[in-house]
Specification:
mainly alpha, 4% strand
Length: 343
């Protein structure tokens, strides 16, 4: 039903663009790469549909065999003998054929590994456009959408037809790992899972349940989860890509662990009395990193108010220094405007 356009020579792009306009009138067009042995073919389904040429007029076995068949030169000549009368040889419809064989490969042709009977689908009343979507408006077979496996399984489900692997795949079974799962697959499978690729070969959910990931990583941690990473590196990793951690870990995983084991930064004057932890966010201001573990900490909203008689224009640091006339600041001086916390 669909045909594959081979690669266009880069030097012929301009010429190809011009000739594409002629395709709508001629139906079949042969594009030559300037002096190159590579050739490109284009076919407009829209033109043929508008001329009331049915699918079976070109695909002669579409309603009688497992393979619908490609157009024959004799069938094309019925129209093109007159249309191509004044065309040069390279523009005639015969240029699309090698003898009697059509030279363009069917786009989206299924591999030998997939069991598919065109006849059985026709006999089941499946219209051509169910699988060959947008064929009525298609101007170029490269743009003709391919039927996806999801659309096939959904159609099978709706019609109560088996959707197990063996229904379409004689060699692919759930008990045998795909060829892609060899070599260093264990190391790279995480990136494939997170890539979001819609390619069938990258779809983990076709064979695996999400719970299998967690069950496996409970006994086999990712390769980067070394003891050194656990001690000093995992916090930075979590800050950079928290969604990645969430693939396996829930928020309470962090809380339950740090309830017993404080981060390595929580030493010396990190807390009272000097509260050097302020420097983590305020020198320079780097965001509310603390809120990852302390979302409900009220300290920022409980700063002491300024004593009576103090105005926002006063220089607090002039008095509130070690050895000054007033009690020194109970926290590290990060250079901020005191009025932003003390009202």
């Amino acid at each position: 039903m669909a045909f594959l356009m081979s690669r266009i020579d880069r030097r012929a792009l301009s010429a190809a663009a011009l000739l594409a306009m002629v395709a709508a009138l001629a139906g079949c067009v042969l594009f030559d790469g300037s002096g190159s042995v590579r050739r490109s073919y284009s076919f407009s389904h829209r033109v043929h549909v508008e001329l009331d040429i049915g699918c079976t007029d070109c695909h002669l076995a579409a309603e009688s065999a497992d393979e619908p068949g490609m157009p024959g030169v004799g069938a094309c000549r019925l129209c093109h003998a007159e249309l191509d009368a004044d065309e040069p040889p390279e523009r005639k419809v015969e240029s699309l054929f090698e003898g009697k064989e059509f030279r363009v490969t069917a786009q989206g042709a299924l591999g030998a590994e997939i069991v598919f009977s065109h006849l059985r689908h026709v006999e089941a009343g499946v219209e051509c456009t169910v699988c060959h979507a947008a064929v009525e408006t298609n101007e170029d077979t490269l743009g003709l959408p391919k039927a996806s496996m999801d659309s096939c399984t959904q159609c099978h489900t709706d019609r109560k037809v088996p959707t197990d692997c063996a229904a379409c795949h004689p060699t692919i079974v759930a008990e045998v790992a795909p060829a892609s799962h060899g070599g260093n697959w264990t190391r790279v499978h995480g990136r494939v899972c997170r890539s979001g690729s819609e390619d069938t070969v990258d779809r983990c959910d076709l064979c695996h349940k999400e719970t299998e990931c967690a069950a496996c990583h409970l006994t086999t941690p990712p390769e980067n989860h070394t003891n050194q990473w656990r001690r000093v590196g995992h916090g930075l990793t979590a800050q950079l890509d928290r969604d990645n951690c969430a693939t396996c870990h829930k928020p309470d995983t962090c809380i339950s662990c740090h309830a017993e084991t404080e981060p390595r930064s929580h030493t010396g004057n990190f807390g009272s009395p000097r509260n050097t932890h302020c420097l983590g966010c305020h020198l320079p201001l780097s965001g509310e990193g603390c809120s990852a573990c302390h979302p409900g900490t009220p300290s920022h909203a409980l700063a002491q108010p300024k004593p009576p008689g103090h105005t926002a224009a006063m220089n607090c640091r002039q008095c509130h220094i070690p050895g000054g006339v007033q009690p020194p600041m109970p926290h590290v001086d990060d250079g901020s405007n005191c009025n932003s916390c003390h009202h």
